[in-house]
Amino acid sequence: MSRLPRLHIPGLPQLILQRGNNRSTIFVDEADFRAFRDMLRESARESAVPIHAYVLMPDHLHILTTPPEAGAVGAMMQRLGRRYVRYFNNRHARSGTLWDGRYRSTVIEPVAWLLPAYRYIEQNPVRAGIVGEAAHYPWSSCRHHLGLATDPLVTDHAGYWALGNTPFDRQAAYRALVEATPGSDELADLRHAAHRSWMLGEADLASEAGANRRIAPLPKGRPRKQPPD
């Protein structure tokens, strides 16, 4: 069976996941993290892709963006992947693949899922036991959103700006959000969406006009027979 193209709906955010091959380490030390973040900024600029939120973990990464057109994320990830693999292999005297196949991505409905996706991404180091608070992890967009640092990589979505009329209001509202513990259903839904590449959100809340493929899997089993009129 042929592989479905990546889902794209104009104007809706995308949650991106990229893992190391066999979950191997993709960032060995601080120099690797810095190099990748610089390359991500450059690749995003060249592809006109805004980065709303991100986290760089030792063996994987997440990015949240709203691409301007269907091929923009693919162009960015291709540029980024080639640059970083070349850098990583040269620096660490290795060869061969670094990534676990193609990156994965899914479309999310912004009203219900944008800010949970921010939190899901930026709490990743806490869930992994690397830090006690998301603000303590230096390789994510969390410190930017809390007003603790300025990250030139980040271009926030309107949903983040709606948290308050001033930077202080937005940062305070976001701090309350990111410090709260999400429900197990929220985490399960975000994880499933990130891995399966189906749209996250109610279909009738998001415009399907312009979607390049179906947004949910087909029902399992044979279709039910309809009773006669």
TrEMBL record:
Domain of life: Bacteria
Residue ranges of the region described as Disordered: 210-229
Occurrences of domain Transposase IS200-like (ranges): 9-124
InterPro entries: Transposase_17 (IPR002686), Transposase_17_sf (IPR036515)
UniProt-listed SUPFAM superfamilies: Transposase IS200-like (SSF143422)
Family matches, as PANTHER family: TRANSPOSASE IS200-LIKE DOMAIN-CONTAINING PROTEIN, TRANSPOSASE, Y1_TNP DOMAIN-CONTAINING
Designated name of the protein: Transposase
